Each structure stands twice: as C-alpha cells, then as structure tokens.
Automatic annotation (TrEMBL):
Domain spans labelled Pyrroline-5-carboxylate reductase catalytic N-terminal: 4-94
Short name of one Pfam family: F420_oxidored
InterPro entries: NAD(P)-bd_dom_sf, P5C_Rdtase_cat_N, STEAP_metalloreductase
TM segment ranges: none
Keyword field contains Oxidoreductase: yes
The UniProt record lists the keyword Oxidoreductase: yes
Protein name (record): DNA-binding protein
MF (Gene Ontology): DNA binding; oxidoreductase activity
Keywords (A to Z) from UniProt: DNA-binding, Oxidoreductase
Length: 215
C-alpha cells in the first residue's frame, strides 16, 4: 500500500484516484479549493479517497501524480518545491496551447518538455513522465482497446521509474506494454506526440485510443 497524492481533480485525476484507491492505495485528491466539509469520498468497495488542497496533498503523500493542466503546471508545481523534495513526481500532463476548438495546436516548450522543465525546477524531486500519449479512459483501462497500447516511461531515476511501472500495473498495464525510453529528455518525444491528437479526434471523435509501439 502506498500513499499517493493526485494534483488535479478533473477527469484524469479523478479516474486515476478511483482506480488506485480500488487497488488498495491511500489516495488524496488535491483540489485547488477542496470541497466544503468533505474529508473523504467512498468509492464503493475501494478505500476512501481523501480531499485536500494541492499543497497539503503534496506534503502528506509519498508519491505525487501531476494531473493538472500542462500549460500552467510548471508554475504551480514549482511553488510546491518544499513539499515535493525527495519525492517521486509522476507527470501525466501535456503542455500545449489550444486552438479555438479547444484541442492542442502547439507545444508550450518546443525543444524541451514539461517533464524536463519540472525536473529542472525541482532538482530534489524524481520526475517520471508517463501516460501522456492516450485519451484519459485508456490510462485506467488499457485492455479496453482492441490493440495493446504502450505506456512510455521517461526519467533520470531508475528506482522512480520502477515505482511508476508498479503503479501502472495496478492500473491494468501489462509489463510488455510498458516501454522505458530512458532519461527525462526522452519525454520531449512523447509530449510531441500530443500533436497527433487533434487530427485523430476531429476525424473520429472522442473514442479512446493510444499512440502505441508495434513490433
């Protein structure tokens, strides 16, 4: 059992929270403004999901997942440098600018990546990039696709990547579906893949898919 904090309570963060809680982890879901008096939300037979503000979430958990909007994540997480010191930060966001229809159109960090920027801003934190090359339903239900998807890993710390791979297993990812690309600079390749997404969505609608490696 691991204490996991998830920053961002939208569709991505909430879906990850439910699945990881069902796997037996202690999960805190970090809102920018935590809901009223609610301290926990029961998810059926899963453990309760606690709610807190994002600073408290980062401070009180062992592993932190960034599921906040990528275009503002750097400033938000850099402000949590003390709370994130010594911890593993799993970044699942993509930092993009958006077209009028709300879909990605350009990268915020061309020639770099959000993950690299986070690692530079948080040198005492072990950043791992993963799960950013798919629509969010696939993150927690990879076997729902007719073709095996790929979850890529990028990070400088081998132990942190092994921990992230363990959490991927709890989300339903088979070991052969996980591809370790190398250090954190490899995240710029997977983050660039998000530029495929709007073209696929405009043609096919919001049907779950992943950008995967076939061998």
């Amino acid at each position: 059992m691991t204490s996991i904090g998830i920053l961002g309570a939208g569709r991505v963060g909430s879906s990850l929270a439910r699945t990881l809680a069902a796997a037996g982890h202690e999960v805190t879901l970090g809102h920018r403004q935590p809901p009223g008096q609610a301290e926990a939300h029961e998810t059926g037979s899963a453990r309760a999901i606690r709610f807190a503000d994002q600073r408290a979430t980062a401070a009180t958990t062992d592993i932190v997942i960034n599921a906040t909007p990528g275009d503002s994540a750097l400033a938000r997480l850099a402000a949590l440098d003390t709370e994130l010191t010594g911890k593993i930060l799993i970044d699942v966001s993509n930092a993009t600018r958006h077209s009028p229809d709300g879909l990605p159109t350009d990268l915020c960090y061309p020639g770099s990546s959000l993950a690299e920027q986070l690692q530079q801003a948080l040198p005492a934190t072990r950043v791992v990039k993963t799960l950013n090359t798919m629509l969010f339903p696939v993150m927690t239900a990879p076997s729902s696709l007719s073709t095996a998807p790929t979850a890529y890993l990028s990070g400088n710390d081998a132990h942190a990547k092994a921990v992230a791979a363990g959490l991927l297993a709890d989300l339903g990812w088979q070991p052969e579906w996980i591809e370790d690309l190398g250090d954190i600079t490899t995240a710029r390749a997977t983050e660039a893949l998000v530029l495929l997404v709007p073209h696929v969505l405009r043609r096919s609608g919001f049907q779950p898919f992943a950008v995967s490696l076939a061998r």
